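Whether sequence alone determines local backbone shape is best considered at the level of individual chains. Part of our work consisted of pairing the sequence of a single chain with a tokenised description of its backbone. This step matters because it turns folding into a mapping between discrete strings. For completeness, the protein is quoted in full, as a sequence line and a line of structure tokens:

_____
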Amino acid sequence: MIAAFSITPIGVGEDVGAYVAEAVRVVRASGLPNRTDAMFTSVEGEWDEVMDVVKRAVEAVEARCGRVSLVLKADIRQGVTDGLTKKVETVERYLSS
């Protein structure tokens, strides 16, 4: 599965980069394939692994601010591996033709 998620600390003002970095640090330390862009962090793995990482990322931010908003979207598809790369490669292939 691939889960794309965004964690936003509530009540800390507009500068949330340090809080978001705490969540991304958890994801990167997990060892699961991941990618972070301007809006979401995506992580790939088995259901329990991915949900554990999301939970721990939320907890890392929550520990610093007390209130967190989580947006999560998941692609649950059995038998697919390296979806983070393959999905993008497919789109790029269509764009180049």
The radius of gyration is 15 Å. The CA atoms of residues 44 and 50 lie 7 Å apart.
